[in-house]
Every structure is written in C-alpha cells, then in structure tokens.
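quick one if you have a minute, typing this from the bus. theres a chain ive been looking at and ive put its sequence and its fold in token form underneath. please have a look and point out which stretches look like helix strand or loop to you. anything you notice is useful, everything is just below.

***
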Amino acid sequence: MLAAGVMHASWHGLVKSGADQVINLAGMGLVATVCAAVVLPFVPAPPVAVWPVLVASVILHNGYKVCLAWAYKRGDLVQAFPLARGAVPLFATAIGFVALGQVPSFRQLGGIALVSVGILLMSLESSRRAFNAPLFTATAGAGLAVASYSVLDAFGTRLYGDWLGFTAWLIVFDNLTYLGLSRAIRGPALWPNLLRLRVRILASGGLGVASFVVFLWALSRHAVGSVSAVRETSVLFAMLIGALVYHEPLSPWRAVSGILVVAGIVMIAVWK
C-alpha cells in the first residue's frame, strides 16, 4: 500500500501538471483499459448479482474523475489533493461499518482520525487566506465518491469471489465510460490531443492501473477504513513531488501535518 501511495501521488502529479485534466484522465484510463482487457479472457464473467455493483461503482468512479478535473482547474496540487483525500478514511470507515459491518478497533479508529486530521491540516496552509467555494465543492464531491466506491468495491470483490476479475471488469467499464464522456465534452479534438500527450498518458496510465490493482487487492483482504487510511500516504508523497518538482515550499506546518499522518499509519499497522 505504501508503494501504491507513491504511484497514486505520481499519477496525480502528472495529471495536475497537464493543461487539460479531462484529456489527461481520459488517456490515462485508455491505457488502464488496455492493460485490464488483457486479463479478461482469463477471469470468469461477472455473476448476475455483481452487475448492479459494477454499474454503481462505475458511476462513482466517473463522478470522482469529473470532480477531480474540476478541482485541479481551481487549485494547486498541495491544496486540492489533500482536500480531496483528507476525509476519505473517516467516510470509508463510517460507510464500511454501516454497509459491511466492519468494526475497527479503538486504536485503529484513532489512527484513521490522525491520518485524516493530518491531511486536512496540510491543506489549511494554502486555503486559509480565502475560501474557494468551487474548489471545496469539487474536493468534497471527490472525497465522498472515493469513500463510497471504496466500500462498494470491497463488497464487489467479496461478492465476485475473485478480486482480480472484479478489478479487470471494473477498470474496463469505468474507463470506457469516462472516455465516452470525455469525447462528448471535448469533441473530435480529444483524439489528436491524446496522441500529442502520449508519453505523459502512458506514464500516468501505468502508474494509475498499478496503484488501483494494489488497492483492490488490499480491499479484498482487509477492512475498508484501514486500507483507505494507509492509501492516503499518497498525500505525503504528493508533498515531496510538490516540493521537488513544482518547487512548492515545505513549511513547518506541512511537516507537522505529515508527522500526524505517519503516526496514524503506525497506529493502524501495529494495533489490530
């Protein structure tokens, strides 16, 4: 999951640095679709009971991408990414408890809370001077979508009985749907732009699909809240990317926030 966090932050950095996030996300999804399609002949078709879960998950995943593209148009990486990810572990734990009956221990709850507080504090430094309503709306929508599809995908992998099969079918349907949506938004210009950005798209697509496969594998074996919390280490790696690549300042405020995130992860990993 730590490796998945590095890959997750990296593809977000690539998407953010592009001029058109809708096209970047569409191209990234196309790469992921090709990778997942290779697996389809070797996994069983989804059972009838799994199809409603897949459809609902595709809707949530596409909603997340739309909100993410919107957020990155209105804020920088260090501001938008923590806001979008900060409340995900808490949302996912709450939904996982209600929907799946997953009850985290007291210490795990404390760790999840520390991760979320650390990430949200990290975002305050860049957002405290002015309230950006569109940005906050977009990031709130993204965070809620992530928490919801995390729980739904955890349920789907168990219902399907094969985490790899569920992951492959989800990636294909999700990204083909978003590709169609992107074509409707950007028109015929989508295709030449995808070709022009092929290097960035190949890199972000490979990182994205690898990160998501690890995430679904972990969801099939562990509690949603804990997996989601450890995944949010991607915010720490996004801080490093922001500092090293985009030359954003790594202030004491952000350092303290990072320590809270690491402390939360230790609590989740050590205490069951």
Remarks:
- The mean pLDDT is 83.
- The chain is about 80% helix and 0% strand.
